[in-house]
Fold this protein.
Amino acid sequence: MIKQSIIYFLLSLVVILFAGYAKALLAYANVLYMYINTALMPLFGQGYMGEAFRDMFTLLLTPLMLAGIPALIYWIVKRSKMPYFIELTWLLWLTFAMSSYLIG
């Protein structure tokens, strides 16, 4: 319990100290998300269903790409699967889902 409290405190301190960098990183990730969404626009219709499918594919592709690049580099160097790849993908998916659809 004490160990987890200390980790929680230290991670909170790191987030506060590097908040500016975290905001910039989230902004760049959101720009990448919008770029992919715009690039997929010619593949899908302009109606409601086309937009829904485009948003779904964008929300699927962006976290896989962002987690897949470090995983590929890790595989090239170590010749084994990157640990916590699925967890990283879900974390990125949750971040994009919250920033794009739930918050605004």
